[in-house]
Amino acid sequence: MTAEIRELQQAFTDAELHADTDRLETLLADDFISIGERGYLLDKRQWIGRHADFGYLALETTELDIRRYDRAAIVRCLQHSRATWRGEVMELSVRLGQVWVELPAGWRLAGIQFSSLEPA
Questions:
Q1: Which of 1, 52, 96, 106 is deepest in the core (most CB within 10 A)?
Q2: Over the chain (120 residues), what is each successive 10-residue block's mean pLDDT?
Q3: CATH architecture, domain 3-116
Q4: 15-37: b or e for each residue (b if 16 or more CB lie within 10 Å)?
Q5: Residue 41 CA, distance from chain mean position
């Protein structure tokens, strides 16, 4: 039952890692909102557009937990990344929450929220 959501979550991670903006366009709901680890908001256009200045070097997802509710699913996990932002290398470990919703066109990611983890 959660296999479809697991596949979509992996497709999203792969699209992020490879800056596949066409795939992101398909996976994100039109009213998608991201809440960053410092509280900033990005809508769908801004999220996809950030790949002009941002790129992942490595992206690992662990402790994946999926809860399915009729036409919605909540995904929680840990994510460890190494990326570049405007030429600067950064590393980040976050607890991540995603909200997936089933729309007439299929499952779409409607929201994502990041919470920074303290360095180990």
A1: 96
A2: 91 96 97 94 96 92 95 96 92 95 97 86
A3: Roll (3.10)
A4: bbbeebeeebeebbbeebbbeee
A5: 13
